[in-house]
Every structure is written in C-alpha cells, then in structure tokens.
C-alpha cells in the first residue's frame, strides 16, 4: 500500500475527459493522461460491474490503468475486489487513495 501512496502527488488533469460511466452514485471519467480514471462518489454492488467494465476498457486500450480515488466517498467489498483483488487483469495503480479505500483495504488485509 505504501508504494501506491508515493504516487499521491501526481497531477491528473480534469480537462479533456471522457465519461465512461455515470449514475446517481458514481462517476467514472477517463482523464489526461489517458490511462488514468477518476472515480467520484460511491461504489457498491449496484455499480461495481460498471467499474470493472470501465477499467477493462481502459486497460485494453492502454495496457495499464491508474485510478484516482481522491473523490471517492464510499466503497464496499464488491468495489474493492474490482480495484484490488481481481486476478483476471493487471491490478490498477492507485493514485490519491481515499480514506474509505484505505480503511477497507486495511480491514480486508487483516483477515
């Protein structure tokens, strides 16, 4: 986890963005650089599949994806699995790790 925190100061430009998914709870936006995805809102069982699809789309195009979670307010286990536990694709690099992601990761890793 400490390695991902070292990238917290990296700049992500909100200009030139592409909305990959949006609902009442969550916005998933591809930003500049193009391999970066910004998450804003709440991730739960109702939208974690959309997150997986968006990350797969960016990974297929760019090979790797960075995910900025600074504006994420909530994440449940289904979303955590998409971000950190999926063996089917390369794990995304986390930028600006939100407190909710850190708390859930700490709890899941201590089991």
TrEMBL record:
<dbReference type="InterPro" id="IPR058548">
    <property type="entry name" value="MlaB-like_STAS"/>
</dbReference>
<dbReference type="InterPro" id="IPR036513">
    <property type="entry name" value="STAS_dom_sf"/>
</dbReference>
<dbReference type="Pfam" id="PF13466">
    <property type="entry name" value="STAS_2"/>
</dbReference>
<protein>
    <recommendedName>
        <fullName>STAS domain-containing protein</fullName>
    </recommendedName>
</protein>
<feature type="domain" description="STAS">
    <location>
        <begin position="39"/>
        <end position="84"/>
    </location>
</feature>
<dbReference type="InterPro" id="IPR002645">
    <property type="entry name" value="STAS_dom"/>
</dbReference>
């Amino acid at each position: 986890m400490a390695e991902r925190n070292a990238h917290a100061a990296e700049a992500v430009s909100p200009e030139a963005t592409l909305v990959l998914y949006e609902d009442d709870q969550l916005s998933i936006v591809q930003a500049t650089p193009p391999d970066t995805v910004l998450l804003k809102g709440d991730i739960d069982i109702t939208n974690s599949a959309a997150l997986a699809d968006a990350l797969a789309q960016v990974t297929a195009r760019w090979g790797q994806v960075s995910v900025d979670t600074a504006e994420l307010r909530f994440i449940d286990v289904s979303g955590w699995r998409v971000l950190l536990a999926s063996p089917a694709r390369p794990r995304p690099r986390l930028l600006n790790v939100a407190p909710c992601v850190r708390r859930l990761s700490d709890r899941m890793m201590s089991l």
